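Progress note, project year one: complex with norvaline.
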Amino acid sequence: MSIRHFLTLMDLEREELDVLVSRAIELKAENKQGLLYEPLRNKSLAMIFDKSSTRTRISFEVAMTQFGGNALFLSPGSTQLGRGEPIEDTARVMSRMVDAVVIRTSSHQMVEKFAEHAGISVINGLTDSFHPCQLLADIQTYRELRGDIRDRRAAWVGDGNNMCHSWMNAAHQFGFHLSVATPAGYGPNPALLREREGVVDAGSDAAAAVEGADIVVTDTWASMGQEDEEKERQRAFAGFRVDSSLMALANRDAVFMHCLPAYRGREVTAEVLEGPQSVVWEQAENRLHAQKALLEFLLR
Ligand code: CP
Ligand code: NVA
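Model obtained:
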């Protein structure tokens, strides 16, 4: 069988994604019961992190430990990649030693290039374009708390960034509608928007997007690598904060989602983030269970 990668949600079939989310829920229950399950004994996962991370790094590392395998954390300066060893050489060498690799870096093309030359599964741990692992946990969270996400309505409020793009792919793959509201000039990738026509609409009216939504989701206004734009972004995004009055436009049992880290008082008020509709801590926990399901799918 050919090697499977997970660079975007489009790398898996819809049915495979569905099974994976169900499996994540199952693995979570077994883990809570204290059942020992070590399907990846003697397997190694390399993790190349070119950007900061709390959740992604910890969840992959703990997932490998719980599965009986091990994870190697590789920071940019600690490998020869940092000194200019070509990506294709690194990919080929690592493929002869480890069983899979997670990469977090700015350039999506870099991850694609790595995958092209790798003889092992490559997992996107976040690029400037996509963050698919987060969506596995998010869909799992919705399914656990509210049931199937199919035919539901989600509203993305804020930046048309990597997380927004992955929500757009999720709408296509899991069969729900997504309304995107961003300030003008900060919308999602136009080519991706065209591809998602029919399941995603995009504009600049946050209230209209949230009206009647089952999920309201946002993310930081300044992603990693955009620190210099922080001030100008705060001005541009001022009307796109998720607060209680915006949440009041959504359905009564709507959930608030955020991949974290969150910046209280900027993209979301403390009241919403800590409020009864917020499911952000469940999302964070589910990173572990969803990625265990992903690793099992890719490595067994
Ligand atoms: N949500 C998420 O990916 O968090 P980290 O940046 O902490 O990994
Ligand atoms: N959009 C954010 C997500 C962090 C998990 C970033 O890229 O920094």
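The beta strands are 44-49, 70-74, 100-104, 121-124, 153-157, 177-181, 200-203, 215-218, 255-258.
The chain has a mean pLDDT of 97.
No further modelling is planned for this target in the current period.
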